[in-house]
Task: structure prediction
Amino acid sequence: MTTLSTFLTRTKGRADRRGGIGAQDVLTYGYLIFGVLIILLPVLWTLLSSVKPERAIDNFDTRLRPLAPIVAEIEGVGSKELFIYTDDAGNETNVFKAGPTRVITDVATPDQPTAVFQVPKDQLQIAEEVRIATENYLDPILKRNGQDNFTFFTYLFNSVFVTVVATLITLLINAMAAFALSKYKFRGRLTFTLLIVATLLIPSSIILVSLFFVVWSFGIFGSLWGVIIPAAATPTGVFLLRQYMLTIPDELLEAARMDAASEWRIFWRIVMPLSLPALSVLAILSVIWRWNDFLWPLIVLISDPAQHTLQIGLTTFSGEFDSDFHYILAMTVVSLIPITLVFVWLQRFITTGIATTGLK
Amino acid sequence: MSLAGISLIVIGLLWGLGGSIWLLSHRKYRLVQVPTFAMDLLGFPVEFAQSLWGRAGVPYALLLPNMLIFGFFTFLPMILNFYVSFTGGSSISLFSRPWVGWENYGDIFACETIFSPRTCSNEGFNFWTGLFNTLVFVAIQVPLLCIVALATALVVNQNIRGRGFWRAMFFYPVMLSPVVIANIWNWVLHRKGVLNEGLGGAANAMSSLAGMTGFDIVASVFFAILLMVASERALRSGHEPSVAWTSAFGVLFLAVFTWANPLSLLGVEGQASFWLGLVLALGLVWIVSVGHGVARMAIFAASLIAIALLLTIQFDAVFDFGRFRPINWLVTPDTGWAMFWLVFVFCWSHMGFYMLILLAGLQAIPRDLYEAAKMDATKPSRAFYRITLPLVMPTLVVVLVLSLIRGFQVFDEVWLLTGGGPGRETFMMVQNIYETAFTGQTPDYGAAAAGSVLMAIVIAVFTFFQLFITRRQSEL
Result:
């Protein structure tokens, strides 16, 4: 709690301010609170809705609490929804409907199911209780109630596999290229640099069609490798790492060469550990890119449900069950949680990392 | 087993087995050095290149994997795009595609008039609709995104409490995937969703409040007090009017001006009063922020006008919204709401990233410039125009270019939220390419490739045009 309060009240920069709260502070904090509300309210509303029972979702119940009708097991009748009957004196009794709903409806109390009496319909109110609808989450994940289309763990595995493997490959080959461009003088260095700048200017969506042909002829179309490989080399990553590696002193490398270390060992033992800050920023960026990647996986993986990533799985799930909002919302929350946890855990690191490396 | 599979196995064998043999024959490893051996094996091609050609060969070996991927998956498709765009049919095998020359391009340009896509052929209709929609989207979204990102960066850069928290909050939507974003907003924007519910509740409450007797008097007095407080604070602070309070006053002035609708006396109907009021309010803020000599007089005059207008407003009519009808935000055609919400959601989800880049730019501005400005008693607004804006310009240009390129490629959110609808109102260029090539019964790769080439040209023209305009500030 103390750390939280220090975190929330920490300030930085000039301390020579006059005391009190001026108009500028009001505007500033008003803007900040307004912005954060716009950002958080939809997400929180989705979280809240995802634990509401199916009936509340279908009726677009906009009350905050997850309310479900109370269903009681009544002897000789079966399970019935309970209603609250308010008589003219203001007394409330729990009743259930013993017949069809009419202006004057037949009802009976659960204690005496056979003692049917008649009440006006508008004095009946549905009895509700707060109930967290865990089935929204558990049905698709555990494949209950016929919800076997959302193979959550397959999707999660695929997403994690793509993200981790692609990030590792990206880090390795981008660091190798950045090392070559920053620490060696060789013929064609400018050419290679310009080539990489050129890829920075080619938007990925204008080469979709022909990339499809290339990936198809490599035989990796329809497999996770078809998503991992094409995007593994990122110009942004090469530049980010190159800028950072330029700051590593050459003397360190020369000293290692004196000790007859091979170039690969210099790279692996000296350059890689020293560029850890830049590497971790690239790792974070790569994780965000891969985890949220949508269009290319949609093209490559759509035909085989066993290869779907979480994003594609969620898309097809939302498309198939257009009306089952309670499952869609729950699965949306499920796929939102991992990246949110990563963010909460690393947020300081992520925001300062991206800001200070001057990503351009 | 495909050719790629066989070659992959050969390379794997050479790398794994050959590398192990080569390493073991050249170096001595103890048992505890298994990790070292694994590391050396991973870099075997580099080690091998060094032993063959000395240190001169190493950079090429280091660059090889990166350049192979760039070559095969970026440059080759780029060139292939042109070839595919000149071929027809739906064959996946490149060499069995018939050459059709300019036919795909001809289909796109087969229009009576290009500016009305309805007169085009089918392909032309799709392409030009996508292009014009994308242009509208970019024209609204890019400036809006840049202004909001800059404003947020300026606010977060101030000496505020919990700046790490605010910064993280604004960045959070960047982490969310398009599907999650689309599902969230779909749920919020549903016809019976929480937004309509909230708006309906607010409208009904306001209407019933306006129906009470004496509401007109109370509202008039209330707004008069607000106006007086705002103008008084704006005039009082220091020896020059305060910009912050003038902004607050400007908002009030705009509201009063719109409600009083003075232009209706001249017979001009519609939204004209709002726009005139907006121009006047912005002009007022501008006059004050540049420290013009007539600033005080302007505020004084504006408050007199506002009070006069206030007396003519029938507040019970202004706040009576009648019965609220839920709006089907993403589905009702010809309202522009679908495009509005796409722009909104896109800004919502991308703003944090650009805010961080701008924040880095702002923090790179030396503090002593502001110290010096403070010594000379420079007003904050002047410091903004003379110090902050010029010095953050290079970063702003980068943000502009990035968001422009990104905006042209918009697909995920649009496809998931509206699917291009209602009708074709939000049908974008990338969706045209995607649907032409990958979703139809008979995929038309040639037409899609032709569309891609034209889209590349559009993006290139806009990017270079922008870089050309801002070439002095640019550091790209």
In short: Chain B has three domains: 3-72, 117-191+330-469, 200-318. The domain at 117-191+330-469 of chain B is CATH 1.10.3720.10 (MetI-like fold). The two ends of chain B are 46 Å apart (CA to CA). Chain B has a mean pLDDT of 83.
